[in-house]
Amino acid sequence: MSSSTLETFHYDNETVRKFGIATILWGLIGFIVGLTIALKLIWPDFLGFIPELSYGRLRPLHTNAVIFAFAGNAIFYGVYYSLPRLCKTPMWSRKLSDIHFWGWQAIIVSAVLTLPFGINTSKEYAELEWPIDIAITIIWVIFGINMIMTIMKRREKHLYVAIWFYIATFVTVAVLHVVNSFEMPATFLKSYPVYAGVQDALVQWWYGHNAVAFFLTTPFLGIMYYFIPKAANRPIFSYRLSIVHFWSLIFIYIWAGPHHLLYTALPGWAQALGTVFSLMLIAPSWGGMLNGLLTLRGAWDKVREDPVLKFLVVGVTAYGMVTFEGPMLSIANVNAIAHYSDYIIGHVHNGALLWNGGLTFAMLYYITPRIYKTKLYSVKLANVHFWFATMGAVFYVIPMYWGGITQSLMWKEFTSEGLLQYPNFLETVTQIMPMYGLRAIGGTLFIIGAIFGSYNLFKTARQGSFEADEVDEAQPIIDPAAGHKESWHRRLEGRPLQLTALTLVVILIGGIIEYVPTALVKSNVPTIASVKPYTPLEIEGRDIYIAEGCNNCHSQMIRPFRSETERYGEYSKAGEFVYDHPFLWGSKRTGPDLHRIGGKYPDSWHVRHMYDPTSTSPGSIMPAYPWMFTDEMDIESIPARINALRTVGVPYAEGYEDLAIRDLEAQAEQITRGLHENGFGEIDGIEITSDKQIIAIIAYMQRLGVDIKGNVNPWEDLPSSDRIRANFTPQQEDE
Predict the structure, then answer these.
(1) pLDDT in tens, 458-484
(2) What is the distance in angstroms between the CA of the first residue and the CA of the last residue of the chain?
(3) How far apart are CA 706 and CA 530, in angstroms?
(4) Is this prediction's pTM over 0.70?
(5) Cα–Cα distance between 435 and 439 in angstroms, integer?
(6) How far is CA 679 from the centre of its chain?
(7) Distance from the Cα of residue 735 to its chain's centroid
(8) Distance in angstroms (rounded) separating the CA atoms of residues 568 and 551
(9) Closest C-alpha among 535, 555, 550 to residue 696
């Protein structure tokens, strides 16, 4: 080849460096927030006097920080480094790269400025409110345009396997985010999803499971396919296996979301589909793992010496463990034990710490010396980081596995007389407290390792000379269609738009088949005549419950197990949730289920419980909420919220928003008067008045489950009860 046919171009290392720095900084912040909430489960009063640092508000901040700030920046770090080199061209637009970087950081900052202040949708991995959702969509599209246009102007005819996974990530995350973010704004920072109850649960876990699949898995698989061959200096083990791995993975994964909802009120056919496709996931997942590990055949001696390969190998091995465990947890009998327990926390962090963390640190150690034209400052320190990270993950994951199984078996144990062995839920919490301590130790070890790694990378950068524009050269594509006869897939690899379109079709099939019948066929969600919409005060209480993150520790879904019906009451029915925007079934029980708590305790009990949980439950690790006794309700926005809920289908009569505040005040006054009459007009010198948040929380708690329990509905005796009932449209069908 004549040198005159080569074209010279420059890679943009400046964008790569910025995403790398952001990955490190946000990672450290996310890890520290995670350790903070772990400590709060051991010492509930730790930072308990600051509402913005309460467990319920920090927990979604932690998940968003590690998923979208740490892993998200790591994905872009890997893509902006590998994609231009695979395409032999710089990114299409440096301006779009800059907008993408700063826009993504602004989104992360917006999460920091909203989640600790209780601005929260409650939907796992999608907690950010509607203006931020719009910003995410815009920035994601900008990233996608830049990526697709870079691929279109490539100098390599065929797209390497890593690029397939990058394309699948862009397409699927866009679809997931947009569909799950259909919401009706009520105010600037408050919205309600258009879906309710069962439909909302299905869409959320279709999103939630596939956010893990297509944000924390497929882009990292692309990273694996690029960096393992590069670090080992060997070609990928099997091209054919990579084809099977890619298409089977993206087709099957999208169906698996319902396995998060086994034994719930979700229709049985949807649960069965989720289980079947989850079990099928073992094959493509392990195919990818083996393709990565077998690439190292004959190069294992390098693993002993190279910290990059160490992190890659442990990361891919953890991916194999987690993707075997996930399908096993989708089997109904196994799920019955593991779901709602700490086992799932261990399962998730096994992947997060070692798979995502391992590949991220491998990238950082591989890329940093190259863009700074130097060697790694200290291989020994990188190895120290590796062992701290690995042992930290072990100390985190194993106690959660052990504690989760212990916890679940205690929930289900009966005496020989047929009574619950541990009727007090708190007994199942105090039993596993040592495991929480070990988890905190594991998290601390992981953070220490990350600090060592950050220092090592900083010193590497200091000793090197940054190359902002890296020169390369390649021959242009003269005729992409020219050449000998190729297989169908080889031809598809030369047609990125067709590959993108086919990817979109493949991932839409499962989602459409699962959701459409649930949304359109009435028999999937039979209604119950006695179930009525929430009153204005209950709406305010529910929104406070969401803002404080109570759903992070409490479920509202009683499964049809003898142990659960004995402990909580009648199992939950699909028709009970038709007015729940959003659904609050929960995914973890650090505290007991609350779906039948209405009428179980007097209002005064809830006052004491929220002010000082140990006064009603000695040894409780629930945080106190003293600010609820001084913070006022957001009464002014109630009409707007009523209007938004009516727009998404809750049958409030036209014009009811004009009466809503009056009804809220009447119900609040009734609860407050009852507290005063029973000697609970104040607590610790704080007078309880009808405009405080605690009154709304009491109203919501006392409503839960009463519609089918036969209890008196708490708003039946209001002076305006006839008017309230007149503003609801009755159900037309009975279950």
Answers:
(1) 999 999 999 999 999 999 886 545 556
(2) 76
(3) 9
(4) yes
(5) 6
(6) 43
(7) 33
(8) 17
(9) 535
